[in-house]
Structure formats: C-alpha cells, structure tokens
Design brief:
By secondary structure, this protein is mainly α. Helix content is 61%, strand content 6%. It has a five-stranded mixed beta sheet with strand order 2-1-3-5-4. The radius of gyration is 25 Å and the shape is globular.
Length: 494
Amino acid sequence: MAAPSAQRTAGRELALRPVLLIAGLTALLLVLLSHRYGPLSDELYFIAAGRHPDWGYMDQQPLVPLLAAAIDTAAPGSLFALRLPAALITATGILGTALVARELGGDRRAQVLAAAAWALSPWLLLSGHWFAAATLEPVQWLGVLGLVARWNRLRGEGVRRDRLLLLAGLVAAAGVQTKLQIGVLCAALLAGLLIAGPREVPRGPRQWAGLALPAMASIPAAGWQVAHGWPARDMAAVVGSETSRLLLLPGALLYAGPVGGLLCCFGLWCLLRDERLRPVRFLGWTAALVVLTYLITGGRPNYLAGLGGVLFAAGAVGLQHRRWNRAWVVWPACALSAVLPLVLLPIAPLPLVARHPQLASYSRLYETGWPELARTVADAYRAVPPPQRARTAIVAESYHLAAALDVLGPELGLPEVHSPDRGYWFFGAPPDDATGALYVGAAEPLRPHFASGRRVATVRTELDLVNLAQGVSVRRYETPRLPWSRLWPLLRTG
C-alpha cells in the first residue's frame, strides 16, 4: 500500500471539464428558474432588513441583508439580479467540492462524483435558487475546511503556505457576518486539530491573523447582542421549538439527497477510520463535533449543510480507495437522485401546482401570493378616510407578511410596515400619534388594546394557491387604549 502522501499526490489532476460542465449546467438551470413564481419571503425580509442597516439582527447577520438591499436598489424588483449571485455561489460550491476531493487524493472520477453530489443535494440546489444566508453559508464552510486541508497537505510535503490560513480566516470572518453558526465550525475545527493534529502552535503573523480575524469580526455582532439583551437566545428557543433533535440527522441526510447522504455517512467513516486519510483526520473530528453540538443544543437540519462538500469529497475518495468501479450503478443512482431536487424547484406551472397542492410545497408556500397580499392591504388602506389614513399604522403578524408589504407596498401607496415578530420587532413600533391600525394576520392580538376592531378584507391569491398569504385577514382597529411605545413590548412574538 502506498503511503498517504503518495496516495494524495496521485490524485491531483483536476477533472476541470466535467466539473465545470456540472457547475455550469446547475448555474444555468438556476438562472433560468430565477424568475419563476416570485420572491421568497426570506428574500423579501433580507431586502427589508437591509433598509434598516445595523451591526446585527435577532435572526441574521448584516452581510446578506445589506447585499440584498443593495441589489434591489440597483435593480428594483429584479429576481434575475437578486438570484444571479446565488446561482454563481452554488456553482462555486460544486467546483470547490471537486477541489477538496482532489486535495484528499481523489482522481477524476472521485472529483466528478463529489461535485455531482453537491448539485444533486435537494437543500443545496434549492437554496441556490434563492439569495439567502443559507446559500452563502455552505460555501463558506467548505472554503474554511478546504483551505486548512490544503495548508496541512502542503505542510506535510515540507511547503509552508501560511497565507492559506490567512485566507481561511478571511472566509471565516465573512461567515461571521453571514451566520453566527460558523463559530461552531471554527470551535470544532480547532478541537479537531487538537485531537487529531497537527497540533502546531500558531507562529508568524499570517497564522495569528487567520485565528484573529473571525474573532474580531464577531465583536460588532456581540456588541449588538449585548445592547439588545441577547435576542439570539430567544431565536435559539424558537429554533428549538420548531425542530426535533431526533430528526436532526435524518433531516440532514434527506437534505443531502440519496447519493449525498450515502457519501456523507461513508465519508465521515473514512475520515475517522481510513489510514489513507489519516493526515486529514481532523476533518472527521470537526464534522463529528459539529453534529454532536447540534444534537445537544438543538438546530435545524440545514445547519449541517456546510459539512456536505467535505463529506461528499471524502466519501468519493473512500470509494476510489476501495477500487469501487461500478459506474453503471453510481451514475444511474445520481440520475434517480435528481428527481427530488428538481421536484422541489419551481418548475411546475402554477395551474398544475394549484390542482396538486402536494407538489413544490416549499416554493408554493413561500414564493407565491405576495402581490395579491400587497394589493389587498393597499385597497384596505385606501378605503380608510383620508383624515384618518395618515394616522393609521400597518402591522403584520409575521415577518413574512411584513417584509412582503414593506418591499412591494410602497409602489401601491403603503407606508412603512411594522411587525412584532422576531427581528422585525427591533425595527421599531408605530408612532404614538397613530390612532388606528390595519392588522394583517390570522391572530387578533390588538383586540384587547383598541376600542373597536373589525375585519375589512381577506386575501385571496391567484388560482387559490395554498401559501402563507392565502386567507389572511386584514382588520381595522381604532382608538388605542395605550400608546404604541407602551403597547409594543406587550406584542412581541418569536
């Protein structure tokens, strides 16, 4: 058996053409679907949040909201402009996965299989359809782990490339401004290095800078959290109430897809047990510790998506080491695996989706109904007599509804929208001189706090699609019993 370094050296030819073909076709598919249905509710929220620039938010970090708002300012309402970066980021993840497979010693077939696993992952492909924090995060995690793996491989060959650690620190710093979960990855990576090596004490400015950059980037977010009473703890409680620890791993494997799920399991086993991958065993410990952290503390299955690229690569290389040459099984399995992510994408025409509510549920639920919602609320707002209209606030039950009205409403004459839900609560309450309100939502939290209230409209969406806007009530309330500044803390949800 060849030595580990020799094994890794043998697989350094990059399968550039087939990998670029997979990445290019995936990006092309996502670009062609970018205009389908409508904006995702989270995309609308990012645009709205970016119009309230801050060092942090209850449920997000500032990078994606600022970018989304900037894109929407440059190309208002253009889904193509908003989602083009997401398609390119997804293609980058595919290419990066192949590069990591090569770093682990993967030959051309292993690289192509690893790249295909990313493209066939239901979650990674679906999140590539949107511009969201969940789109950037897996590529950032892959970048951090891949750069450290490359630094370690070159170090084992007697070549020092400490700038790779500096670059990994820069990627991690960008990750801190995307989602705080990258802190879990960094802690697990350091622990994995301590457990499996190399246990090298940082030396030189680049190594120290690579460690310091993510920590420095987290200072503004930590300051914001302290100033606002650590709302991240409230968000963690929300996530815990919405998820089950027992379903974390099954959900993560489902998100990885049939081929990706098998590669993840096999790849983790290979990283921890295969002697030919001993030099990068710290990657296996990193993945295991991240999984263990979320099993203990709770988390959504997509929190583990950032581990996918490295585990896809390790699994493909593990198959290569075992001379598993049954391509007649692998590639038909990949073709069958394409069915699930393609079903999740907004490919089916809306009339067909309306007749079969079980199809494309995520896209149907979160990408349709927003124009009808905005028009319904705008009609109700215009129906308020002009003297009272100027003192009528618009309050939405959830951040989904509030963001849709905030982004789509101004063209219809709607004022700024408020919501007591999650991060929207921090954007502020209606002014105290507002003597009336239009409340958009299913609940009636304002009823005890106003002298009168009645339903004035109900949202009906195109084709009677089942979505978040369908059937939502619009109620008009008059004469508050408390000023909004005192009422707002009582209404906070999420």
